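Render this sequence as a predicted structure.
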Amino acid sequence: MKTVQKSIFQWYCKLFFLWFGTHLFLVLLTTNTLCANGLTLDEVLKLGMQANPEVSSLEERIEGAKGAVIQAGTVPNPDAKIRVEDYSPDTGAAKKALELVQRLEYPGKRSTRKSVASENVEILKFTMESTKLDIIYKLKKAFYDILLASENLSLYGQNHAVTNDLLELVNHRLKQGLGGEFEVAKATVELVKSEKLLKESEGQFALAKSQLNVLLNNPPDNRIDIEGRITTYPPRKNLSREELIRKAINSHPAILIQTHRIKGLDQSVLLTRLSAKPDVDVGLTGGVEEVGNSRNSPIAEFSISVPLPIWDRKRGAIAQAEGDKKGAEEFLKQVQRNITQEVLDAFNKYTVAQKTVRLFHEGILAKTAKTRDIIKQSFEKGLLGFLDVVDAQRTYLDVMINYYQSLYDLHIAEAQLGKTVGGSLP
């Protein structure tokens, strides 16, 4: 009798693990093809940049600032005056003249004003670059959120299927007199837990897709698929901290914005000094003086008007402009320190995440899979109970969940590092 029961037990075990292996293969195949023909990371970045209204707004502001450069280099319009003087009602005699006055700005004013406006254009350009860095980071995070949620959903779906079939198996074994009520109760609890985890995973997957849709300016419930798995985009391996800091100091938009702001303020100081220099108004008048019905005398006048800088020499304005410039120079030092600290922090997170993934690759994954296989084989021989198989499967799934989370953390750390460096990594 015991021999027959053992044979039946082993037959069910083989049937179960045959089903399990087939199911696992189908799950992995489905995961690999889940997002076939979907959006790649590059496509997501391109679409997200095109759909972002903040980028469009800055593009329009840049065009407006370019118009300000043109306006800053424009020569002032002349003034035209028509004068009628000494009019006599009796004879109709009067002086009639046309006066044209052209302001000649002090040399250097117009070019300096144009330089200030040009620096404002550069500031807006690098403001847009900084905005793009934020957008790229958000898009990458949303992309990897979906990849991680997809992996978790597949693993929890696999776990639910395994626990469901375990429950059926122990129920069948109970009918054959090979198990007890405790095994059924435990398997039921495991099934309920797996259902809860699966529902939560489905919610996270839907939420991740909704967040990417919002960034792409789509309705939150719009259908969207992406291509790849969390392991499809392996991060780079060797990065130099010193090189990253050097690149950030030389090319980060926040630093370049402040650098051009200082240049603009430097030109503003010069423009304020030049404003104390007088402009010259040159006037030319031509006309006639009517003396009688038949006598007209021509009139021609030339005038130069120069304000005298006696009381207002712009000393207060010059001091204010110089103070603004010095304040901006000190703030640049603070920005450089902040960027350096951000690079160090991001590099540390990247290094830690990289080491964690390496630990999984160097032993944890292989050991966990090997342990699960040993327990499976022992279960087939009747040496271990089904709870041991459940614990082994749960441990394996926990390891895989943590492995994918570590890969996700590594990708996010790399994206954050790119943002703090100010662009693509070297």
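Summary. Residues 23-36 have pLDDT under 50 and may be disordered. Residues 258 and 332 are 6 Å apart (CA to CA).
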